[in-house]
């Protein structure tokens, strides 16, 4: 049985769950016309949001596959933030914040305590 879940893993899982839930809500609002957009965009938001919620639940349980999926997403977010800093200087602060959050998420998911948690889960 896994030991207690590290606070950093819990934080990342909670933020992922909230992000997924908000994405589902956005998709539903688009679908029912509260915001502009097409049905394809709405369903894409709902699908990605549902996947995000499922992956976040895996993080809560210590599922290493969920950690890998989230790590890949964070790495892509970090790369996108770096690219944005150089290609769209007007978005510098947004890119810096997004990149910092991705980096913090990666550090929290691969700390010594998190490694132990995912190894014993």
From TrEMBL:
- Report TM segments: 12-34, 40-60, 67-86, 92-110
Record flagged with keyword Transmembrane: yes
Q: Which UniProt keywords apply?
A: Membrane, Transmembrane, Transmembrane helix
Entry keyword annotation includes Transmembrane:
yes
What is the name listed in the Swiss-Prot or TrEMBL entry for this protein?
Answer: Uncharacterized protein
- Organism taxonomic ancestry: Bacteria, Bacillati, Actinomycetota, Actinomycetes, Micrococcales
